[in-house]
C-alpha cells in the first residue's frame, strides 16, 4: 500500500533527523568545552543570530521560515541546557508576557526563575543565581517601563540582547461571556483594550491587579469573572478563550532586554544602549547629542529619568545604531564622554526585528 511505503520513508527520514540532531548537539558540547577552557560565555546571541539567518537562507520551503526558526530555537535551547545548567530569571509569575518573551529567546529546555519584581531580576543575575535576566523596557502603546530604566542607572550588568514581542490580549474565563460581570487584569492592559471593553463589555466592573497571571488565577476562583491576559496563560492554567486579539491597537508590541555579565560581539547589525548625565548649563544636552550627528550615527531612542541623586538632575538613556567596537561609534562615545558628568555603555547587542 502506498501509505505504508510513505510512512516507511518518514520513519527512515526521522531516524536520520534524530541522528543528525544528536550529532549537532555533540558538536555544540565540544564548543562548550572549548569555551569553558577559555573562560568564555556559553550562550552567544551574536552566533545564534547568524545561525537563524543561515537557516532562513537555506530554507527553500515548503517549511515556513517561522516554523524553521521555532524548530531551531528549540534545537539550540536543548543543547544549551545540556552544556550548562542555564538559568533565566524573568519578571513573573509564570505566563506573563515577559515569560513569553524569555521562552521565545531561550526555548523550553533551559531553567526559568520567576521573580515578582524587576529589581529581583537584576539581583538574580548580579549574584549569579541566574545566568541571564529578561525585563520589559518599553511598550509601543504605554511607553517606558520606568522601573527598568532606574535599575540600569546603577547596575554593573550589561544588555546582551533585545526582543520585540507582539502583545496580543485575550479574554479568558471558564464561564460563558454573558455571565461575566467582573474582569481582572493589569491597569496598563485595561488601557490597551479600552475601546473593545466599552463596545463589548460596557457594564462589566474592571479590577486592576499586579500581573496578568494573578488576574487569571482570580478569574478561575471568582464566579462571574474573566481575565485579560496572554494566550499562553490560557494553556498554562487551562482557561477557555472567550475573545482573542482584543487590544485596540493592532501592532501593540513590547520590547524586552536580556541582561547578563557581558556585551555581545559585533554582528554588523547591532544597537548600543548608553546612559549619561550632563552639566546643568545651556546647550549641554544639545552638545552631547551633536557627537552622533557629527559621526553620522543614527539615534533610535532617548528617554530621560530623574537621577535619584539630586532633585531636578536627569539621566538620559539613548540607543544608537552600531556596536561600541565599531570605529565610528567608539569615536562618538569618546567624544560624548567629554560632555558628560557620567557616561556608561549599557550594552551592544544584535538588533532584533520589530
Ligand atoms: C555552539 C555555540 O554555542 C551556543 C549554541 C549555538 C548553537 O546551537 O548553534 C549557538 C550559539 C551559542 O549560544 C557557538 O557559540 O557556536
Notable traits:
six-stranded mixed beta sheet, 354 residues, binds ligand ISJ, alpha/beta, globular, D-Maltodextrin-Binding Protein, domain 2, Alpha-Beta Plaits
Summarize it.
The protein contains twelve helices and 15 strands. With 354 residues, it is an alpha/beta fold.
Strand-helix topology:
Layout: H1 2-38, H2 45-58, H3 65-83, E1 87-91, H4 97-106, E2 111-115, H5 118-126, E3 132-139, E4 143-144, H6 146-152, E5 158-166, E6 170-172, E7 182-185, H7 187-192, H8 194-200, E8 205-208, H9 212-221, E9 225-229, H10 231-236, E10 241-243, E11 253-260, E12 270-278, H11 284-294, E13 299-306, E14 314-321, H12 327-339, E15 340-350
Parallel strand pairs: 1-2, 1-3, 7-8, 7-9
Antiparallel strand pairs: 3-4, 3-11, 5-11, 6-9, 6-10, 12-14, 12-15, 13-14
Helix pairs in contact: 1-3, 2-3, 11-12
The structure holds the ligand C=C(O[C@@H]1C=C(C(=O)O)C=C[C@H]1O)C(=O)O.
Ligand ISJ binds next to helix 1, helix 2 and helix 3.
EC number: 4.2.1.51, 5.4.99.5
InterPro entries: ACT-like_dom_sf (IPR045865), ACT_dom (IPR002912), Chor_mutase/pphenate_deHydtase (IPR008242), Chorismate_II_sf (IPR036263), CM_dom_sf (IPR036979), CM_II_prokaryot (IPR002701), G/b/e-P-prot_chorismate_mutase (IPR010957), Preph_deHydtase (IPR001086)
Main location: cytoplasm
Amino acid at each position: 500500500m502506498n501509505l505504508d511505503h510513505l510512512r516507511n520513508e518518514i520513519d527512515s527520514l526521522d531516524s536520520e533527523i534524530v541522528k543528525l540532531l544528536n550529532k549537532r548537539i555533540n558538536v555544540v558540547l565540544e564548543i562548550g568545552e572549548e569555551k569553558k577552557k577559555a573562560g568564555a560565555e556559553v550562550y552567544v546571541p551574536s552566533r545564534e543570530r547568524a545561525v537563524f539567518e543561515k537557516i532562513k537562507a537555506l530554507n527553500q520551503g515548503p517549511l515556513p521560515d517561522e516554523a524553521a526558526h521555532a524548530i531551531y530555537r528549540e534545537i539550540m535551547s536543548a543543547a544549551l541546557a545540556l552544556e550548562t545548567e542555564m538559568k533565566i530569571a524573568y519578571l513573573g509569575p509564570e505566563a506573563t508576557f515577559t515569560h513569553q518573551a524569555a521562552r521565545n529567546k531561550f526555548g523550553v529546555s533551559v531553567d526559568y526563575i520567576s521573580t515578582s519584581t524587576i529589581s529581583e531580576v537584576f539581583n538574580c543575575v548580579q549574584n549569579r543565581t541566574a545566568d541571564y535576566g529578561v525585563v520589559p523596557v518599553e511598550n509601543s502603546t504605554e511607553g517606558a517601563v520606568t522601573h527598568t530604566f532606574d535599575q540600569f542607572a546603577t547596575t554593573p550588568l550589561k544588555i546582551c540582547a533585545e526582543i520585540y514581542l507582539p502583545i496580543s490580549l485575550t479574554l479568558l474565563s471558564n464561564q460563558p461571556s454573558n455571565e461575566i460581570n467582573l474582569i481582572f487584569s493589569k491597569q496598563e492592559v485595561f488601557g490597551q483594550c479600552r475601546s473593545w471593553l466599552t463596545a463589548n463589555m460596557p457594564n462589566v466592573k474592571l479590577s486592576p491587579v499586579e500581573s496578568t497571571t494573578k488576574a487569571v488565577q482570580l478569574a478561575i476562583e471568582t464566579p462571574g469573572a474573566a481575565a485579560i491576559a496572554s494566550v499562553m496563560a490560557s494553556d498554562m492554567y487551562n482557561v477557555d478563550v472567550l475573545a482573542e486579539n482584543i487590544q485596540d491597537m493592532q501592532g501593540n508590541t513590547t520590547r524586552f532586554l536580556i541582561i547578563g555579565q557581558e556585551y555581545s560581539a559585533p554582528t554588523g547589525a547591532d544597537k548600543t544602549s548608553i546612559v549619561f548625565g550632563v552639566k546643568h548649563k545651556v546647550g549641554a544636552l544639545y552638545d552631547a547629542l551633536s557627537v552622533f550627528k557629527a559621526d553620522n550615527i543614527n539615534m533610535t531612542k532617548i528617554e530621560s529619568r530623574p537621577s535619584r541623586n539630586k532633585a531636578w538632575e536627569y539621566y538620559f538613556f539613548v540607543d544608537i545604531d552600531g556596536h561600541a567596537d565599531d570605529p565610528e561609534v567608539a569615536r562618538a562615545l569618546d567624544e560624548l564622554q567629554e560632555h558628560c558628568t557620567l557616561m556608561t555603555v549599557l550594552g551592544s547587542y544584535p538588533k532584533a526585528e520589530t
